[in-house]
Amino acid sequence: MPPFPSQAEVEETLKRIQSQNGVQGIIIVNTEGIPIKTTLDNASTVQYAGLIHQLVMKARSTVRDIDPQNDLTFLRVRSKKNEIMIAPDKDAFSNKTSFLLY
Amino acid sequence: WVCGNWEGLTVLGRMEIVHVYTRLRGEFGRQCLFSDRPAELLVDVPPDPRLAQDFIQKNPRDQALQACRDMSEHQVNTERFESDSCGINHVEGGWPKDINPQEMEQTIRYRKKVEKDESYVNSLLTLGSVMEHCIRQNNAVDIYQEYFEDEDEVEESPEPPSAKTINVFRDPNEVKRTVSCLSWHPDGGKLAAAYSCLQFQRSSRDMSLDSYIWDIENPNRPELTLKPASPLVCLEYNPKDSHTLVGGAYNGQIAYWDTRRGSQPVETSSVEQSHRDPVYKIIWLQSKTGTDVFSASTDGQVLWWDVRRLSEPTERLVLDLSREGNLDRALGAVSLEFESTMPTKFLVGTEQGVVVSCNRKAKTPAEKIVCSYDGHHGPVYALQRNPFFPKNFLTVGDWTARIWSEDIRDSAIMWTKYQTSYLMDACWSPVRPSVFFTVKMDGVLDVWDILFKQNDPTLSLKVCDEALYSLRLQDNGRLVACGSQQGGATLLEISSGLSTLQKNDKSLLAAMFERETKREKVLEARQREIRLKERSRSEQSREGEPGREDADHGPDQLIAKAQEDFYVVTEMERRRRDANQQPPTELEDVDVT
């Protein structure tokens, strides 16, 4: 079955991101923590999916605790070797969060 | 049941209170008609004093009263709630129950299903754009780039210079003596202080002769007592062997101690061979054996000793500027300077305000004295070469401190203005070439930083109320010990700004010294020129006068000369007037016109 036009857009977006300079990999995770799409190997994907999910939850709750009108838009975790950039979806109850390694 | 009258019963000592109420039965149920009645005494119980005997009177009584609500304190604690932190290792995502995560087919199918979901697509597009934006941001500029990361030691907010007192070591004896000299242990943990009374004939009979070695951590008791035969005026640790010290005494003797051997000196020089005046300074020399010292005293001699044999000095030098070795004409020495980088030369500061530079290795005794620097009006109490620029040395005497360059003999290259009280001691900082410390008779310790300010001290601290006589810096440049007239040695710590070497210190100071030296050289050259011109001029005008030394005009000669000139001029004037008086008519004509 051919993918929807919008699905093609999704593919294109991901390709574009992947082609950017310095991007090591992309992982897309849903709210249940299941990695939907990934460009890395399975083991790392699963590890990232599990760990970072909790971090995002914590960060979001922190931001909202301080100001309920506020919300987390982006999270960067910078380490010595690389940077993890996390874009959480707007609704906490929606299905998708995506993040990637930079 | 009919009410009857009951009589009150009286029992011995007690009375029952009874009130009778009668009512006709027919009147029951009728409304009450109340009426006022005057009060009537029902019972009167007088106090029984016999009961008081069962009680003990307590007078006064302390009874606290408070007109407030009674409150009580309670504590409540909920039951302990045990919590435990644990992480979950998400091995394989939260797959729905019907899908077996191990099976590739099922997971792939599930994933594909999710990907087709519309909300998935929408949210992913938005997130994708957000993510791209940030990535581009990252690529554009390294937002975490560290600027100025090499220069983190630049300006750490230059704090104002300060110093704080750490400890004061007081003379434990009743009769307080002056701390005339201080010497740091080579490792810095101990301070040796020489106590003596320097005022002439002021020392009393019961004045103790002892000098002490203090451990800087313990100001209550000296660590070791040194018992010389006569109070010590100066005391020095051997920089090579930290157990040995040598001291110069008030009666001119030199004594040698070994701290492992106790308080008595291991050896003392014989009285006949020693100095005849108090030994003001003694310094260890750099020699192969490490046992050579030399000492200076106001009797005009500088003596060299070998501490293993203090019976007589190894060498003698008389500070006679006319180089004749005449003890009567000798200058009394009060300070001595020896720099290990220049082992053959040394400087002596004298009571007359002259600093004499001497060469130890000269062939004849006459050549030992190389030159002299005349600068102070009073005794040169301290003399030290700059540890970074040995050609320049600091002297202290009268009310100024002066910095000299070895090459310029006539005057100092830099000097402080006249202070309000006498300067007694000075020394350079061993870590910063431009910083030196002085102590004054009003109890003030001045820290001068000539790169920062030349006219005033950078830091001026009142250490104590009495005069400060001695000063010594520890080799790390941070700790300063100064000794006072009442026997108190104060230990101060200097702020780090004054005790850490700055980057440009040396070059700036070198430039400053050079500039001042050049200025003095120019002045000296000009002076010489003027003198030369004068000499040639006076020689020309007095060609007829043989053998007249115009170079040194004594005041008498000047007066005689002025008198002569006066007579000559008046003579000439008289002659001129006589000449004018002869043709008076001509003169009148001249006057009219």
Automatic annotation (TrEMBL), chain A:
GO cellular component terms, semicolon-separated: cytoplasm; cytoplasmic dynein complex; microtubule
Presence of the UniProt keyword Glycoprotein in the record: no
Start and end residues of each Roadblock/LAMTOR2 domain: 10-99
Alphabetic keyword roster: Cytoplasm, Cytoskeleton, Dynein, Microtubule, Motor protein, Transport
Single Gene Ontology MF annotation: dynein intermediate chain binding
Domain of life of the organism encoding this protein: Eukaryota
Pfam families attached to this UniProt entry: Robl_LC7
Compartment list: Cytoplasm, Cytoskeleton
Coiled-coil stretches noted in the UniProt entry, renumbered to this chain: none
Keyword Transmembrane helix recorded: no
Biological-process GO terms, alphabetical: microtubule-based movement; transforming growth factor beta receptor signaling pathway
InterPro entries: DYNLRB1/2 (IPR016561), Roadblock/LAMTOR2_dom (IPR004942)
Function, as annotated: Acts as one of several non-catalytic accessory components of the cytoplasmic dynein 1 complex that are thought to be involved in linking dynein to cargos and to adapter proteins that regulate dynein function. Cytoplasmic dynein 1 acts as a motor for the intracellular retrograde motility of vesicles and organelles along microtubules.
Family designation: Belongs to the GAMAD family.
Protein name: Dynein light chain roadblock
Lineage: Eukaryota, Metazoa, Chordata, Craniata, Vertebrata
UniProtKB/TrEMBL annotation, chain B:
Recorded GO CC terms: microtubule; outer dynein arm
Subcellular location: Cytoplasm, Cytoskeleton, Cilium axoneme
UniProt GO MF annotations: dynein heavy chain binding; dynein light chain binding
SMART domains: WD40
WD repeats: 272-315
Keyword Zinc listed: no
InterPro entries: Dynein_IC, WD40/YVTN_repeat-like_dom_sf, WD40_repeat_dom_sf, WD40_rpt
A Gene Ontology BP annotation from the UniProt entry: cilium movement
Top-level taxon of origin: Eukaryota
Region (Disordered): 532-593
UniProt main location, coarse: cytoplasm
Pfam families in the cross-refs: WD40
Biased composition (Basic and acidic residues): 532-555
Keywords for this protein: Cell projection, Cilium, Cytoplasm, Cytoskeleton, Dynein, Microtubule, Motor protein, Repeat, WD repeat
Family from the record: Belongs to the dynein intermediate chain family.
Entry protein name: Dynein, axonemal, intermediate chain 2b
Species the sequence originates in: Sander lucioperca (Pike-perch)
Organism ancestry: Eukaryota, Metazoa, Chordata, Craniata, Vertebrata
